[in-house]
Design goal:
single chain; 275 residues; 9 helices; 9 strands
Amino acid sequence: MTTRIRRLQRSWERFGRVDPLWAIVTWPGKKGNKWDPEEFFQTGEAEITAALKHATSLGLTLRWHRALDFGCGVGRLTQTLAEHFDEVTGVDIAPSMLELAERYNRHGKKCRYVLNETDNLRAFPDASFDFIYTGNTLQHMEPRFAKSYLKEFLRVLSPEGVCLFQIPGRLRPSPPAPPHDAGETMKERIKHVTPGAILRLYRLLRYGRISRTGPTKMRADGAVMEMYGIARGEVVGLVLESGGEVVDVSENQMAGPRCESYLYCAVKRKVRGEP
């Protein structure tokens, strides 16, 4: 395990111990273990229902045998996937999250959870899954790791299988600053008149790293939730190089209003001669 992967695991292990449901769905007013589990899992049901409807609306034929939920957390999406597929595997980097996932599991052996502590999916052979879904996961890791996992998705996806994954592209430009007024704080005034390059340097010194989408971080008792993105064209090219094809890209709000976030629908091209 690399140092950066280990650091990522430490943060999400901590989130899993301190405030797991809010770390997965960071809705206002839910921080501090205020999520009702039933309401929380209903958000997963709505997300998967919409995702499957979206895939079928594109004219894709889904095979309902084996599905993978990457970055499964406590099983918010895995549980609903198990209502549609014969077998479902949830993968996560945090043991604390998987402990809760096992506790919330309503589908017995039909739904299994796997701890993955590497930047690959070597635990699974080629063509292991007919459907792969991941949302609000790739955005929280450095792009080099997200790219590695994207390549792995195409490897473990069965021929003509479907993969839906979400990742931001870039940070949206900030809206124009409002006119100065007497009620404006000194900090706000300084921010309005300071060049962007100087602000970025300040944030780099303060936060330690600026991501592709900006220095967006959320902290909870030592755990750090970072935000990263990959340019849309780069994602499409990577899928193509890995033996897949992006059949649809749709913008969504999964990464919040400041980020251009996209849901990609990719299929694995069938190799000539395969049954």
